[in-house]
Amino acid sequence: MFAKNMGQTDRIIRAVIGVVALIAFFSVSGSWAWLLLVVAVLMLATSAMGSCPPYALLGISTCPRK
């Protein structure tokens, strides 16, 4: 679907941020909780796919060169 444009370090950092945001989602209430849930889902999804659509639009890639 999307070309991979994220390196291993980028994916790990996004996964950690996603997990932390997900934990924080269960710790707070109100609109902040929903914002944290959106951040968690986006970070975990891009980490799992290895592709970041904004990176593709801006021509950024953290993948090692082949």
Descriptive overview:
This protein is an all-alpha fold. 65% of the residues lie in helices and 0% in strands. It is built from three helices and no strands. It starts with 7 loop residues before the first helix and ends in an 8-residue tail after the last helix.
Please report the total strand number as a whole number.
0
General form: elongated
Regions with little confidence, pLDDT below 50 for 5+ residues: none
* Residue share in helix: 55-70%
Structural class by SSE content: mainly alpha
Nearest-integer average pLDDT? 92
Give the distance, in angstroms, between the N- and C-terminal Cα atoms: 20 Å
Strand content: under 5%
Order of helices and strands: HHH
Number of helices: 3
Q: What is the CA-atom radius of gyration, in angstroms?
A: 13 Å
Task: Give the helix/strand layout.
Blueprint (H helix, E strand, L loop, with lengths): L7 H18 L5 H19 L3 H6 L8
Task: Please tag this protein with its features.
mainly alpha; 3 helices; 66 residues
Summarize, please.
With 66 residues, the protein is mainly α. Helix content is 65%, strand content 0%.
